[in-house]
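User: My advisor, Dr. K., asked me to get a structural model of this assembly before our group meeting. I'm new to this, so sorry if the format is off. These are the inputs:
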Amino acid sequence: EIVLTQSPATLSLSPGERATLSCRASQSVSNYLAWYQQKPGQAPRLLIYDASNRATGVPARFSGSGSGTDFTLTISSLEPEDFAVYYCQQRVNWPPITFGQGTRLEIK
Amino acid sequence: EVQLVESGGGLVKPGGSLRLSCAASGFTFSLYNMNWVRQAPGKGLEWVSSISGSTNSYMYYADSVKGRFTISRDNAKNSLFLQMNSLSAEDTAVYFCARPTTIDYAQFDYWGQGILVTVSS
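Assistant: The format is fine. Below is the predicted structure of the whole assembly, which you can bring to the meeting.
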């Protein structure tokens, strides 16, 4: 099973700042990595698929990069609505499908 | 508009059973592989099970539920199900049904609102 490790566990930033979230896979997942945003009491929302493609309706301030084992989600300038929990997820050779443990992005 | 609506959750005693449903609309349900993902209180996301659409034939389960949970679907009624048996406290979670971006893919662009399952005596 491929393990995804996200860092940091919590990121404290202010609106307008740049956020960089990391996801590391225990073995190569090629570019088969997605990022989700989840707010309290809501279902996850797909942000990025195949490492770098924005899902429909996702603002351009969200971008994804990486391949193999190291991936990054970048939010170029934080808006108040961006403070949430972010998960990465891999789909190479599934099952199983695995998620990272999440990064909580909180307002500083 | 794609919609997924879960139902059937609730409180069940350890060792008990529960059947979750997910009513789908707004897309050609029969073609898509459908999935269950759960989230224990205060915890992260955990994939539970997947079932193929009409162009393929598979049912997959996480090791944590294999032998206890059964996924099924009724394409005529645009519905997905999860039969959960031998439930334990570790199965307490919000259960989401999810649709992938593309047939037979495993990245999810549509999710239901989730349904809470609580296993407690």
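One thing worth pointing out at the meeting: The interface with chain A takes residues 35, 44-47, 50, 60-63, 96, 101, 105-109, 111-114 of chain B (CB under 8 Å).

User: Perfect, thanks a lot.
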